[in-house]
Write a structure and sequence with these properties.
By secondary structure, the protein is of the alpha/beta class. It contains 14 helices and nine strands. It has a seven-stranded mixed sheet, sandwiched between helices. A two-stranded parallel ribbon has the order 6-9.
């Protein structure tokens, strides 16, 4: 067997890729295991010491606000005429809070979105359309700053101060009880975040259902476990950009140094805002409460992309803003827990490289085995067995955890699909990492990016399932 033996060369390359991937999987798996163990310990402790003596609070038993006030809902909308009408109509029909106003930021070169809002809310005092002074698309943060300025003008005109700002997207199904919860808890916290509950996009076939469905498991873990652990260890609670209430005074303080509280140079202004509030000493709370009607959690429901292309575009923007540009913009401030969570947020590009190496090693290993069997020769190289055993155990644990936490939110059928959804998520992550690098290079070279929005679907024919 010589240096130029094809089977030997393929085996060596596959082994080195496998070793690199195995070490990466080990480190990532142990990191995830630490989060799991903290979450399990916290859940067990609260069950034994808190909920054994006190009933769990829900939207009806939560203490009412001491000083009820107006809540302003911000929605930035660029070419959202397909979904914004349904979103506004649902908000008008379902929200139970006595004093709220929905501000929708639009663009002068997007009359279709304005017309869609006016068809369902013409003359309704709860809805305010804010048309910016520049053609779209700008950045989402720039649009949100227009809304902020309009809200400030309304405060001066009406003489009614706003208590908190609630962020939403144009495709969101708002929950009837969310403003009640936000009004009560924003008196104790600078930021209040409720869970996001993805829905399967209807009528898109098996492949579309699988792609949109893979978000179910990811958000179940993120908002059922990971953010809970962040809060428990004392790290800042990041805003998800939807279902997030922020104290008006806190946003006002941030806005003093510029035209608005949202940074137009950021691709993920919501995520950064949560971390900046935490760094400034503001407490964030992630809130999982049962709805007043007893049907599931108070959560934001929304459909996510149902095509690989759409999912890649969305996750590439998240990856660029959080993992790449976020490193530059936010640095590594805070204590050990905060730095650990920021490291987890920023590991996505490296994780994609590790995944790519692992899949490439599998292909190379398969080719080597096939060639060796056909030629009747022994397998030339091997990967250390302890690494394989350890990573296999971690993978089984990860699949079990994903299935269990997904089943809690979406039922046993979605739990059984967890392995397939994880595979789809890996493929999307690898493709998104490549695109994210290109977006980041463009950001570094040209400064500011335009709003690279995601095409949305509003499930007008589907009732939101309970979380």
């Amino acid at each position: 067997m010589g240096w130029f033996d094809p089977i030997w060369i393929v085996g060596i390359v596959a082994r080195e890729l496998a070793l690199f991937a195995a070490i990466g999987f080990l480190l990532g798996g142990l990191d995830d295991l630490a989060i799991d163990l903290i979450w399990i310990a916290r859940t067990a402790w609260r069950s034994a010491t808190v909920y054994s003596r006190h009933a769990r609070a829900d939207a009806t038993t939560l203490a009412p606000p001491r000083h009820p006030g107006r809540l302003a809902i911000f929605v930035a909308a660029w070419q959202e005429d397909d979904v914004i009408g349904g979103m506004v109509a649902n908000a008008l029909a379902s929200l139970r809070h006595p004093d709220w106003r929905l501000y929708v930021g639009c663009y002068p070169n997007d009359p279709a979105t304005v017309a869609a809002i006016e068809r369902v809310a013409a003359g309704d005092p709860h809805v305010r359309v804010v048309v910016g002074d520049a053609p779209g698309p700008t950045t989402k943060a720039g649009c949100l700053n227009w809304i902020w300025q309009a809200m400030c003008r309304d405060e001066r005109t009406d003489g009614v101060p706003v208590k908190a700002i609630v962020l939403h997207d144009a495709e969101d199904i708002v929950h009837a009880d969310e403003l009640t919860i936000c009004d009560a808890l924003i008196e104790r916290f600078a930021l209040v975040q409720i869970p996001v509950h993805p829905l399967i996009v209807p009528g898109v076939g098996v492949s579309g259902a699988l792609v949109s469905g893979h978000y179910c498991g990811e958000f179940s873990e993120a908002h059922g476990k990971q953010v809970v652990v962040r809060e428990a260890v004392g790290a800042a609670v990041p805003s998800a950009g939807v279902g997030c209430a922020i104290d008006r005074a806190v946003l006002g303080g941030i806005a003093e140094s510029r035209d608005g509280p949202f940074d137009p140079d950021s691709l993920t202004e919501d995520y950064e805002l949560g971390l900046r509030i935490g760094a400034a000493g503001g407490r964030g709370a992630f809130v999982r409460l049962t709805a007043a009607d007893g049907r599931g959690l108070v959560a934001v429901h929304a459909c996510f992309p149902h095509t690989i292309h759409g999912a890649v575009r969305q996750k590439a923007r998240w990856m660029t803003g959080i993992a790449l540009a976020g490193w530059d913009r936010l640095g590594w401030s805070g204590g050990i827990a905060e730095r650990w969570m920021r490291l987890r947020d920023r590991r996505a590009p490296l994780a994609a490289v590790v995944l790519a190496a692992g899949y490439a090693a599998l292909v190379g290993w398969g080719l080597m085995w096939a060639a060796a069997l056909l030629s009747g020769r022994a397998i030339p190289v091997h990967v250390p067995t302890p690494l394989i055993v350890t990573n296999s155990a971690l993978l089984i644990w990860r699949i079990a955890m994903r299935g269990a936490i997904t089943g809690r939110s979406h039922g046993w059928r979605m739990a059984l699909l967890a392995p397939l959804h994880m595979l789809i998520g890996n493929i999307v992550a690898m493709m998104a990492a490549s695109r994210a690098i290109g977006l980041y290079v463009a950001l570094v070279r040209h400064g500011r990016l335009r709003w690279e929005k995601t095409a949305h679907v509003f499930p007008t024919t589907m009732v939101a399932e309970p979380a």
